[in-house]
C-alpha cells in the first residue's frame, strides 16, 4: 500500500468542493465518479478513501483547466482548523517545531499525499516534500497544494512566517505572484527536489497559546481518531472501492481480494444494509456521472464504457436509479 493510501476525514474533499463552487463548478461535478454522496459532504464524521479524494482532485483539474496554479490556490484554503483535532494539537504545541513533529506523527489525520521529512541544521529546519509515489497525473497539483497548505497553516498558527526559502522542481511560471502570496518569498524553481526551508529561531519561539494539558488531551484524541478511521471503513466501502477500479469484476473475485467466501461477503453486506448488486449500481452511476459531467461523453459512449448491452439499457437503468434520463440529468447539472 502506498503511504498516502489511508482513510481520511472528508474535510479535505469538502475544501476541494468549496473551491470548485467558488469557481462555478457544482459539488456534484466535483465528486462525480468518486462514490461520495452530496450528503456526505455535510457530515463531519464521514471518512473517505485516498482514491476518492484523488478522483475529486482529477475532476477539479479537468473542470478548471483555466485556473492557473490550481494546487497553490487550493492549498491556501487549508488552515490549521481544517485538520480538526490535529489542528488543535498543533495550535496548543509548545512551539512551531513541536507542532511540525506532531503533524508528522499523526500524518494520517492530514489530507496530504506528499511525504514530509524534516531535518535540522544549526540555523534552519529543512522539510523535504516528496511526491514521487503519487500518481503522475496529479503530482504537480499535490506538490503545489501540500507545500502551500504547509506554508498557510504555519502562518495561521503563529502569525509569523518562518519560511525563509522554498525550492520547487517545477518550471518557472509566467506569473509568480500567487507563489509569492502563498509562501511569502519567491520560490527557487527548476530545483532538483522540493524543500521548504524554515527559520529555526522562529520555529522554536514559544507559542503564546501553548497549553501542555490541552496538548496532551488533543494528542490522546488524535490517537483514538486514527484507530477509528482505520476501522471505520466497512466491507461495503471496500467493495465500492474495488468496483470503482474495475466495474466489470464479479463478487467471487472481490471475495478473494477480501480473503473471504462470497457467502461471507454477502452476509457482511446484508448486515451493513446493502447488497453487491446495489453497490454495483451505485458505482456504475457514479462513473456515469463522471463520464457525463466531467468527460462530457455522449450517452452512447458512456453506455459502452460501462458495459451495458445497449444505450437504451443504460438509459433505463439510469432513470430507475436517478429518476431522470442521462441527457436530462446532464442538462440540469451543467445548466
Task: Explain how this protein is built.
It is a single chain. The protein is 54% helix and 8% strand. With 335 residues, it is an alpha+beta fold. It folds into 2 domains: 8-229, H-NOX domain (Alpha-Beta Complex); 235-334, Homeodomain-like (Arc Repressor Mutant, subunit A, Orthogonal Bundle). It has a 4-stranded antiparallel sheet. A two-stranded antiparallel ribbon has the order 1-2. The mean pLDDT is 91.
CATH topology of the largest domain: H-NOX domain
Query: What's the CATH H-level superfamily name of the largest domain?
Result: H-NOX domain
Mean pLDDT: 91
How much beta, percentage-wise? 5-15%
Number of structural domains:
2
Number of helices: 17
Shape: globular
Order of helices and strands: EHHEHHHHEEHEHEHHHHHHHHH
Distance between the termini: 40 Å
Which percent range fits the helix content? 40-55%
Structural class: alpha+beta
Rounded Rg: 22 Å
At the first level of CATH, what is the class of the largest domain?
Alpha Beta
Which architecture name of the largest domain does CATH use? Alpha-Beta Complex
What's the count of strands?
6
| Biggest sheet statistics | 4 strands, antiparallel
The neighbouring-strand order within the major sheet is 3-4-6-5
Low-confidence stretches: none
Amino acid at each position: 500500500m502506498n503511504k498516502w493510501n489511508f482513510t481520511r476525514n472528508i474535510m479535505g474533499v469538502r475544501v476541494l468542493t468549496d473551491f470548485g463552487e467558488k469557481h462555478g463548478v457544482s459539488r456534484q461535478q466535483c465528486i462525480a465518479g468518486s462514490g461520495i454522496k452530496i450528503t456526505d459532504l455535510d457530515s463531519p464524521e464521514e471518512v473517505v478513501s485516498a482514491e476518492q479524494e484523488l478522483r475529486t482532485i482529477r475532476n477539479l483539474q479537468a473542470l478548471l483547466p483555466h485556473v492557473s496554479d490550481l494546487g497553490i490556490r487550493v492549498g491556501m484554503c487549508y488552515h490549521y482548523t481544517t485538520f480538526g483535532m490535529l489542528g488543535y494539537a498543533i495550535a496548543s504545541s509548545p512551539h512551531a517545531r513541536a507542532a511540525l513533529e506532531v503533524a508528522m506523527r499523526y500524518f494520517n489525520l492530514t489530507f496530504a499525499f506528499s511525504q514530509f521529512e524534516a531535518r535540522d541544521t544549526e540555523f534552519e529546519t529543512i522539510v523535504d516534500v516528496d511526491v514521487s509515489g503519487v500518481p503522475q497525473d496529479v503530482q504537480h497539483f499535490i506538490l503545489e497544494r501540500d507545500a502551500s497548505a504547509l506554508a498557510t497553516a504555519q502562518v495561521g498558527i503563529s502569525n509569523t512566517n518562518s519560511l525563509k526559502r522554498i525550492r520547487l522542481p517545477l518550471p518557472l511560471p509566467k506569473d509568480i505572484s500567487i507563489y509569492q502570496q502563498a509562501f511569502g518569498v519567491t520560490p527557487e524553481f527548476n530545483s532538483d527536489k522540493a524543500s521548504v526551508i524554515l527559520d529555526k529561531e522562529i520555529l522554536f519561539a514559544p507559542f503564546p497559546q501553548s497549553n501542555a494539558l490541552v496538548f496532551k488531551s488533543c494528542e490522546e484524541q488524535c490517537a483514538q481518531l486514527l484507530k477509528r478511521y482505520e476501522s471505520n471503513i466497512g466491507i461495503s466501502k471496500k467493495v465500492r472501492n474495488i468496483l470503482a477500479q474495475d466495474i466489470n469484476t464479479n463478487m467471487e473475485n472481490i471475495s478473494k481480494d477480501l480473503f473471504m467466501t462470497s457467502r461471507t461477503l454477502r452476509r457482511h453486506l446484508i448486515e451493513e444494509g446493502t447488497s453487491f448488486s446495489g453497490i454495483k449500481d451505485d458505482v456504475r452511476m457514479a462513473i456515469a456521472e463522471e463520464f457525463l459531467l466531467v468527460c462530457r461523453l455522449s450517452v452512447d459512449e458512456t453506455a459502452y464504457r460501462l458495459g451495458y448491452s445497449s444505450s437504451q439499457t443504460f438509459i433505463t437503468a439510469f432513470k430507475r436509479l436517478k429518476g431522470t434520463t442521462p441527457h436530462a440529468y446532464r442538462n440540469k447539472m451543467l445548466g
